[in-house]
């Protein structure tokens, strides 16, 4: 079955996960994962804040999906939410993208659409340095204080 024909289930995550509602949110996600019948589940994080509890919940959901032979991806439209995933290093583990379509593309082996998410092997190499001596630095004379002890 090609990546374009793989059934995808999108699960919205609209609440900020905290200790009071973590079990309820996880039970709902577990039920949706089990009843999805799709090999790819995309969790659409619609909150602007991603808590450590939400990160742990998503990691457990990924483990459940992998145990069932499926894949879990994350779509996080908010830049602050994506930054949390990138700073924690979970953007590659959880296959985070900015959109649901990007998460599905990321599942098929493509990048997520922004330079920070492309694999290192596909990034262009930087241009080689120009050979020769380094360029002279600009004069710092304008920054020095004038010598007031000398007379003309």
Automatic annotation (TrEMBL):
Annotated spans, Disordered: 106-152
Domain of life from the UniProt record: Bacteria
UniProt domain STAS: residue ranges: 54-103
InterPro entries named in the record: STAS_dom, STAS_dom_sf
Name of this protein: STAS domain-containing protein
Protein's organism: Streptomyces koyangensis
């Amino acid at each position: 079955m090609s990546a374009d024909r793989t059934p995808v289930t999108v699960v919205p995550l609209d609440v900020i996960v905290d200790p009071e509602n973590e079990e309820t949110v996880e039970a709902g996600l577990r039920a949706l994962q089990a009843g999805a019948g799709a090999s790819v589940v995309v969790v659409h994080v619609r909150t602007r804040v991603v808590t450590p509890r939400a990160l742990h919940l998503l990691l457990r959901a990924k483990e459940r999906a992998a145990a069932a032979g499926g894949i879990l991806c994350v779509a996080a439209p908010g830049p602050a939410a994506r930054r949390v995933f990138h700073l924690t290093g979970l953007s590659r583990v959880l296959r985070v993208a900015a959109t649901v379509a990007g998460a599905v593309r990321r599942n098929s082996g493509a990048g997520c659409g922004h330079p920070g998410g492309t694999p290192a092997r596909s990034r262009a190499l930087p241009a080689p340095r120009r050979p020769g001596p380094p360029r002279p630095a600009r004069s710092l004379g304008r920054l020095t204080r004038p010598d007031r002890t000398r007379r003309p």
